[in-house]
Amino acid sequence: MAASVLASGTRAVLRDPRPSDADRWVYWRDHGVWREYDAPWEALRPPLTAEQQQQTHRSFIDRCSDAHPSPRANAIVATTEGVPVGTVNRCGEKRFPDAWYVGISICEDACLNQGIGSDALALWVDYLFAHSDVHRIGLRTYSFNERMMRVAEKVGFAREAVERELILWRGEWLDRVSYGMLRGEWEGRRANATG
Ligand SMILES: CC(C)(COP(=O)(O)OP(=O)(O)OC[C@H]1O[C@@H](n2cnc3c(N)ncnc32)[C@H](O)[C@@H]1OP(=O)(O)O)[C@@H](O)C(=O)NCCC(=O)NCCS
What is the pTM of this model? Predict the structure, then answer.
């Protein structure tokens, strides 16, 4: 199956995974500051052995030829030059079929703080609303991730809830901060941007 481009912006492109992304995919698993910010108490795992790296590489390539759902559950974030730099994803809960959560990671350290994440998140939200009937899109992060909070707010998410001091991490109590975007709010922003 051909790898589709799902959305293009001024800094980022969202597209399906390609076999040529596999090396970076394996590299990201064990490198990059992104792992320190994406719920690190869950994500920081021992490095893969050489055999596990090969297995991860193979399963990534296999995944590239799988049928992809519409709308996609995840995508590669690439630069406008086509270089893979991270991922976006979505998930939901059966009991709330009209609500999804999204996640984003820019996994190449040299590509942080260059506007790629803001562009990619806006493209992802736009793509998901445009290709589904979902009513709201949420995003959760932790209070040490000021960059994620800034980007969520820049893209137009409303700050909806703070669960204070939810987890003690490296000696600091962290809040979990929840953001949300309603379909009508996104469509209103789009209309204002183009009108
Ligand atoms: C969060 C993330 C997706 C943002 O993408 P990005 O490309 O780095 O961000 P952008 O360059 O688009 O925007 C960063 C914004 O945060 C601001 N910022 C950076 N560091 C900051 C800090 N310590 N405090 C406050 N704002 C900060 C920047 O100034 C910029 O805002 P501006 O455009 O108003 O100047 C990316 O940094 C990332 O993947 N981080 C690691 C993994 C992660 O945190 N994932 C999310 C888990 S919930």
Answer: 0.97
Residue 141: how many other CB atoms lie within 10 Å: 23
Identify the helix (H) or strand (E) that includes residue 189: helix 183-194
Give the number of other Cβ atoms within 10 Å of residue 37's Cβ.
19
The number of folded domains in the chain is 1
Q: Whose CA is nearest to atom 26 of ligand 1?
A: 147
Distance 79 CA to ligand 1 centre (A): 16
Is residue 2 predicted with pLDDT exceeding 60? no
What percent of the chain is modeled with pLDDT above 90?
93
Q: Residue 83's domain is classified under what CATH number?
A: 3.40.630.30
> With contact defined as beta carbons under 8 Å apart, do 6 and 15 qualify?
yes
Indicate whether residue 108 lines ligand 1 (CB < 6 A). no
Mutate to test the pocket of ligand 1, among 37, 91, 113 (most ligand atoms within 8 A of CB): 113
**Does residue 118 line the site of ligand 1, with CB under 6 A?**
yes
Segments forming the whole domain that contains residue 110: 5-194
pLDDT in tens, 63-101: 999 999 999 999 999 999 999 999 999 999 999 999 999
